Amino acid sequence: MTLLGLGTSLTNIFTCHSHSSSLISTPPPPFTLHFPSLNPTSTLSGFTLSIRRKNLEFCARSFGYKGEPNLIDLMESGKESPGLGLNRNLYPQIEPYSTGFLKVSDIHTIYWEQSGNPDGHPVVFLHGGPGGGTAPSNRRFFDPDFYRIILFDQRGAGKSTPHACLVDNTTWDLIDDIEKLRKHLEIPEWQVFGGSWGSTLALAYSQSHPDKVTGLVLRGIFLLRRKEIDWFYEGGAAAIFPDAWEPFRDLIPENERSCFIDAYGKRLNSDDMETQYAAARAWTKWEMMTAHLLPNEENVKRGDDDKFSLAFARIENHYFVNKGFFSSDSFLLDNVDKIRHINTTIVQGRYDVCCPMMSAWDLHKAWPEADFKVVPNAGHSANELGIAAELVAANEKLKNIVKNNGR
Questions:
Q1: What 3-state class would DSSP assign to 373?
Q2: Nearest to 147 by CA among 401, 399, 400, 406
């Protein structure tokens, strides 16, 4: 029996260790796996599993063990897991078959790429931030034999130019850009996938163009309401991450701490570039240090990249100061009726600090027709195992719907 075969229905406590020295050179200490949905009538505690190399890595990575660096991640294969109706494993890394730049205004040019099946069902990936840009790993949520996978960098982010530019950079500009890209690629309609800020933009885009959206996958719901901004940037999340909060707080003098969004906005738009960079690094590190349930050092290091941090922090702050350019605090919830008919899955980490579950819950209550998946042992990042599994499964479900409808 493998851990994947157990699925989420078995939630007892297992002690996993190796009986074979061929798995690793030095056996690791025992791992204790806790499954939060445990049925207390089950009596499998103390059951010892002799697991293969991949399952050992699941234990190690999921619970922070730093063992052999070259063990293969459970989600590398892209093959269907035993006992599960849908594939839940990330697909292998692929390269784009076409890339380009699209001029969307007198100022802005956006980078785009396509990978997977050129004749497949189109899906557009909306990255987070705003200002985060895309990454090659974003392609792995989609079956490359079925999907025509479109990634693009939003205005000012990633490879798009001009870098970190705030001029003519609003939610509505981005929605227009998505439509321009769809028409440029001659796509009649497409599936939309977005996490964090990408979920915000996906909701706004689909509400503006519901006839162009075949399905939605949303992760780490962010509705850009005042209480969400205050929670993360004005001291709420500091109750959980006080050590990460203090460097973010301490960059701002005490007499300006009544509103950190405004104080950072002043510095991120300073005439002095080093002032901009210092503020951008502090802003980005605060977010990266809180994005995973368990600390992720590689993610935190992104805060040291001045180019990435500047776009990420400046554009995020710009959107937050302007309340997402929405006409009301509840704009996205108020317009759910426009997209209620679209097949949708909402994926939310229970312990998401960046975009706490209250927003996903509010969206779920307003939109009960959408599938609602809460990952019990995850934070915010799409790269956490449980969240990645649900995202792949959501795409697989939409893939089957398209196949069955003959579209």
A1: strand
A2: 399
User: Beta strand pairing status for 190-195 and 147-152?
Assistant: unpaired
> pTM for the complete prediction?
0.81
Q: Could you write out the three-class secondary structure of 31-77? A: EEECCCCCCCCCCCCCCEECCCHHHHHHHHHHCCCCCCCCCCCHHHC
Q: How does pLDDT run across 152-201, given as a tens digit for each residue? A: 999 999 999 999 999 999 999 999 999 999 999 999 999 999 999 999 99
Active-site residue flag, 380: yes
Active-site position among 18, 352, 359, 381: 352
Number of CB atoms found within 10 A of residue 314's CB: 27
> What is the rounded CA–CA span in Å between residue 383 and residue 248?
24
Q: Indicate whether 84 pLDDT > 80.
A: no
Output the CA–CA distances (angstroms, integers) from residue 173 to 71, 110, 201, 211, 312, in the order listed. Answer: 44, 12, 11, 19, 17
Let me know: does 283 contact 184? Beta carbons within 8 Å: no
Catalytic residue among 108, 127, 364, 380: 380
Q: Is the pLDDT of residue 335 over 50?
A: yes
Active-site residue, selected from the candidate residues 160, 196, 199, 208:
196
- Residue found by looking up tokens 């890339």 in the block: 99
Q: Which distant-in-sequence residues (6+ apart) come within 8 Å of 16 by Cβ?
A: 3, 30, 31, 33, 48, 49, 51, 55, 56, 59
Render pLDDT for 96-127 as a digit per residue (tens, 0 to 9). Answer: 999 999 999 999 999 999 999 999 999 999 99
Q: Structural domain boundaries of the chain?
A: 98-226+324-406, 229-323
The whole-number pLDDT of residue 85 equals 83
Specify the residue for token string 């710009």. Answer: 318
The structure tokens 């809180």 sit at 290
Average pLDDT over residues 203-207: 98
- What is the C-alpha end-to-end distance of the chain, expressed in Å? 38
Edge to edge, what strands does the sheet with 48-49 contain?
31-33, 14-16, 48-49
Distances (CA, A) of 236 to 311, 340, 354: 24, 32, 10
CB atoms near residue 70 (< 10 Å) = 6
- Known catalytic membership, residue 127: no
Has 209 been annotated as catalytic?
no
Spatial separation of the C-alpha atoms in residues 111 and 345, rounded to whole Å? 27
CATH entry 3.40.50.1820 includes domain 98-226+324-406: yes
